[in-house]
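Narrative summary of target 7.
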Amino acid sequence: MPRLCLLALLCTVLLTPAVQAAQYSSEKGPLQVDQMAGGLEHPWALAFLPDGQGMLITERPGRLRLFADGQLSGPLGGLPKVFARGQGGLLDVALSPQFAADRLVYLSYAEAGDDGQAGTAVGRGRLSADLRRLEDFRVIFRQQPKLSTGIHFGSRLVFDRDGHLFIALGENNQRPTAQDLDKLQGKQVRLYPDGRVPEDNPFVGRQGARPEIWSYGHRNQQGAALNPWTGRLWTHEHGPRGGDEINIPEPGRNYGWPLATHGINYSFLPIPEARGKTVEGTEPPHYVWEKSPAISGMAFYDAGRFPAWQHSLFIGALVDRCLIRLELDGDRIVHEERLLEDLDTRIRDVRQGPDGYLYLLSDETDGKLLRLGLAPRE
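Modeled conformation, tokenized:
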């Protein structure tokens, strides 16, 4: 074999996905990024299985894959049919808080209606012992009515410490519906794991209001995570042209969209319903970006591997093509840093792994699973 061909073959063997690495700089020291896997078609979310069994990764066209032992599986069976159009498709994935006993996997996805429009649905199925399929998949929640033609589905799934399931929803680009309590567009929803409505939800028993609603006035929520120090739910949502924001949703509160916003329309004209950046009776954002990074994914960092990252919140950015690190002092955000701008990739999801590294998904046709850590100082 010619020497150059042998060298090329050797490089191919050595540069397997688990060891393709690059270094970048940050305020806390050099960063190391390892590409763990490629060939994912618009991956959207990931969830870690216990006991080192790997992770589940959703792809927006409707596939759920297992990444374990450095290998990416074929699509798992037993998934629902998804509305894979525009921003729609298979979205978030979360494990049951009792996964060790019940093996339930929760998925959110865009679901078509009878009239060609779609809405967000959530279902759950039992992961088979051989990790190849979801068994007995059942829908536990449907966004009603179905109003999306392909955008603003949300959505993220988070379990709180009491086992309630929170579902962050988009408003299907139907702005006024975020204020309508008889609709599930632009809402944060709170359910029991089987889809039942808790009796202490804020709108239970109120005429003309959906009992599933926890908070309302949201636009397109694509980030949600439980604060590990306080146990409170944090969410973030896309603004229009400007006005991406973080909220800490409280029961029954109105978070403003489209009445209150820091953004304008993509046409550069004002939002027709907007009355200003702040409006009486609505909650101001906990944190806001006047220029939209197009945020997606959210992870608090509380691991011991990288102490310099303690009390940080990490958020992916699609348009700004970076990872945002926010430093926290209690609930206050006191500093913002942009990471991986030289990587130039749309970051769709970010999660803290059980090993203390961060794991990122890049939203591309040839999407990647990346591992991020602080590199050792020489």
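The two ends are 39 Å apart (CA to CA).
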